[in-house]
UniProtKB/TrEMBL annotation:
Localization, UniProt: Membrane
InterPro entries with a match to the protein in the record: MFS, MFS_dom, MFS_trans_sf, Proton-linked_MCT
Domain Major facilitator superfamily (MFS) profile stretches: 245-432
Organism placement in taxonomy: Eukaryota, Fungi, Dikarya, Ascomycota, Pezizomycotina
Superkingdom assignment: Eukaryota
Regions that span the bilayer: 41-63, 83-106, 135-158, 170-190, 202-224, 245-268, 280-302, 309-329, 335-357, 369-396, 402-423
Family the UniProt entry places it in: Belongs to the major facilitator superfamily. Monocarboxylate porter (TC 2.A.1.13) family.
Full protein name: Related to monocarboxylate transporter
Species, as recorded: Cephalotrichum gorgonifer
Length: 432
């Protein structure tokens, strides 16, 4: 392919898909912005700092399956599974939902004044979790406080990285979000070991997690910073809600989030119900997150080459197929293979959604707002998905209905993304 053709294809990937959005973004201020360097020491330091944020914040959240299984047999043994799942759901909802505020704040004020208080708040929240004994205490500390401060960490991180990368944005965000998968391997194994095989107890086990995060978040606070000056337009970009591309993409991510968190929350409990040892069952969360590490890096690279919407649609459909098969897996070996498979396929949904939202605007100063608002609307699904799954387990006393609910939700996500492709200038068969 000629160099000019390649450059033309790449330029299409960053153009807004809605004509009104293109006109709004075509301002003298936007045209004066320097192009993203797509590499260099500063860019990769920002990406490294963002990866440590995801390692600490989402790595901890991705360990909730271990907490779910532990709470069901210890502090909250008198509570049904769907009730306990609300702790993780509230956290997952707020960490994405706060993007509606954190994204525009980043666009207007940069990252430093947001990430540093949030990093301190996350460590404090984890220390408070270590003291919890009652359900309402877990909801406040592990659900509301932890989820809210995470939102003020992850969106400035993604916004900063997006300003430094354009043609390689999918790969860069994939590497950054893969930090959550690495954390999702480290934290579940450490939690399981300390909870089940030592005399540390719950309190000190959780506190140690906070101490592990402290140096990681310190590095992030020193390195994550925006490349561009803040925008001075309105706080919320209301025209986004008139753009079909943005609205339908948000709906697609809604169904993706509805289904993708279910295996992460319930696979340890399902494994225990089949006779697997609780310690080994907890390791399945780590195995799932190990699979999602590659599921976030490899599809991110492929997205830059073959189209960001193509990869996101494939992720939704493949995750739906795998999720529907959960209740058919009954052996330990099968559960290990299943965890790797669902981790790989679902890993591209979050990273793919982030890169897809970056296609909605040509102005890099608005990336934080578009990502934040889109993820905030989609995050409602993260709030209601796991409790619905828990209620299905309690109602039918099995996991078939849970797996079908998760799988059909993800399948719907993939097909809705294909509708998004259909309204782009390139069409459903284009490289978008």
């Amino acid at each position: 392919m000629a160099v000019t053709d390649s450059l033309s294809e790449k330029s299409h990937e960053t153009e807004p898909r809605d004509p009104s959005a293109a006109e709004a973004n075509n301002t003298p201020e936007t045209n004066k912005l320097s192009p993203a360097p797509d590499g260099g020491l500063q860019a990769w330091l920002v990406a490294g700092g963002a990866a440590f944020i995801f390692f600490s914040a989402l790595g901890y959240v991705n360990s909730f399956g271990v907490f779910q299984q532990y709470y069901m047999t210890h502090q909250l043994s008198d509570r049904p599974a769907d009730s306990i799942a609300w702790i993780g759901s509230v956290s997952g909802f707020l960490q994405l939902g706060m993007g509606g505020v954190a994204g525009p704040l980043f666009d207007r004020y940069g990252a430093t004044g947001i990430t540093r208080p949030a990093a301190l708040g996350l460590v404090v929240a984890i220390m408070l979790v270590s003291l919890c004994k009652e359900f309402w205490q877990f909801i406040l500390a592990q659900g509301i406080l932890t989820g809210a401060v995470m939102g003020f960490l992850i969106f400035p991180a993604m916004g900063s990285v997006s300003q430094y990368f354009d043609k390689k944005r999918g790969a860069a965000l994939g590497l950054v979000i893969a930090g959550s998968s690495v954390g999702g391997v480290v934290f579940p194994i450490a939690l399981s070991k300390m909870l089940h095989e030592t005399s540390l107890g719950f309190g000190w086990t959780v506190r140690i997690m906070g101490f592990v995060m402290l140096p990681c978040l310190t590095f992030s606070c020193l390195t994550v910073k925006p490349r561009l000056p803040p925008r001075k337009t309105s706080f919320f970009i209301t025209r986004a809600f008139k753009e079909p591309f943005f609205l339908i993409l948000t709906l697609g991510l809604f169904f993706g989030f509805m289904g993708m968190f279910t295996p992460l929350f319930f696979i340890p409990a399902y494994a225990v119900s089949t006779g697997v040892d609780p310690t080994l069952a907890s390791y399945l969360v780590a195995i799932l997150n190990a699979g999602s590490t590659f599921g976030r890096i490899i599809p991110g690279i492929l997205a830059d080459k073959f189209g960001r919407l193509n990869v996101l649609a494939a992720a939704g459909i493949s995750t739906g197929i795998v999720a529907c098969c959960l209740s058919t897996v009954t052996s330990t070996g099968g559960l290990v293979v299943y965890s790797v498979a669902i981790g790989f396929t679902s890993g591209a949904i979050l990273s793919g959604g982030s890169t897809a939202f970056s296609m909605t605007t040509k102005n890099p100063q608005e990336l934080g707002a578009y990502m934040g608002m889109g993820m905030a609307l989609s995050s409602i699904a993260a709030l209601i998905g796991p409790p619905i799954s828990g209620a299905l387990v309690a109602r039918y006393e099995g996991y078939l209905e849970l797996s079908l609910f998760s799988g059909i939700s993800c399948l719907a996500s993939g097909f809705i993304v294909l509708i998004v492709k259909a309204i782009t200038p390139e069409g459903i068969f284009g490289r978008t």
